[in-house]
Amino acid sequence: MKKIIVIMSVLAGVFFTGQSKAQINISINIGSQPEWGPAGYDYVDYYYLPDINAYYNVVTAQYIYLLNNRWHFASTLPGYYRNYNIYNSYKVVVNRKNPYQNNKYDIEHYGKYKGHSPQPMLRDNNAYKAMRNNGNHYGNNRPGNGNNNDRRNTTIVKKEEKKAIKQTNRTIKQDSRGASRTTTSRTQRSR
Predict the structure, then answer these.
(1) For residues 89 and 49, is the Cβ–Cβ distance under 8 A?
(2) Which alpha helices (DSSP H) does 53-179 contain, by range?
(3) Where would you tag: which of 17, 22, 156, 184 has the fewest CB atoms within 10 A of its CB?
(4) Contact 51, 81 (CB under 8 A)
(5) Phi and psi of 92, rounded to 5°?
(6) Is residue 45 within 8 Å of residue 98, measured between CB atoms?
(7) Quick check: helix, strand or coil at residue 181?
(8) How far apart are CA 116 and CA 54, in angstroms?
C-alpha cells in the first residue's frame, strides 16, 4: 500500500510539473531593435512603414516590401526607395505574425500616419544608449572603430557627466542627534 502511494505521488508530481512548464514567457528585444525605431517599446516583432507601405522584421533585420503584387524580403530597400529616410519617417509597431498578409488592415488603420513627423527614436533615448554602450561612454563612435566617428555623443556625455557631478555634490550630514540626512550643499546652511 505504501509503495502504491509513493508511486502515485511521483506520477502526480511528474504530471503537474509537465503542465506548469513555461507559463510565463517574457521576451525583451531592446538590444536587437534598430536605433531608428521609436522609443518606449521593450519588444517589437515588426515595424510598419506607412510612407512606403512596407515592413521591417526586427528579428531577421529584413525589409518586407511589395513589388509586382508579391512580398519581397531583403536586408535593404530597393533602389526606388533611395530618397526614403527611415530616421525621418513614422513607424508603427506591429506585434503579430506575418503582418504583411493582412496589409489592407494596416493601410486602413495606419495609413493616416503617412507623412507624419517621426516619433522619438531609440538612438535619442538615454536608457537605450546606456544599454548599448555597456558602460562605455563613447560606444562605438571612438576613432578607429570603423564608424563615422561622429562626435555628437561626446557632447551628450559631457552633459551627463555634469549632471552626475551635480548629484555627487549632495552630502550626508549628521545632526546633533546622530541621525543622517541628505542635503544639497548649495541650499543647506550649517547650523
Answers:
(1) yes
(2) 103-110, 126-133, 152-168
(3) 22
(4) no
(5) -110, 125
(6) no
(7) strand
(8) 16
φ, ψ for residue 116, nearest 5 deg: -75, 160
Residue 10 three-state SS? helix
Instruction: Give residue 118's pLDDT.
Output: 65
Q: Parallel, antiparallel, or unpaired: how do β-strands 62-67 and 170-174 relate? A: unpaired
Distance CA 181, CA 190 (A): 13
pLDDT at 55: 95
Do the beta carbons of residue 148 and residue 168 sit within 8 Å?
A: no
DSSP per-residue codes, 31-64: GGS-TTSBTT-S--SEEEETTTTEEEETTTTEEE
| Residue 63 cell numbers, joined | 525589409
Confirm if 121 and 81 have CB atoms less than 8 A apart.
Answer: no
Residue 91 exposed, middle or buried by CB count within 10 Å (0-12, 13-18, 19+): buried
Please tell me the distance from the alpha carbon of residue 43 to that of residue 59, in angstroms, as a whole number. Answer: 10
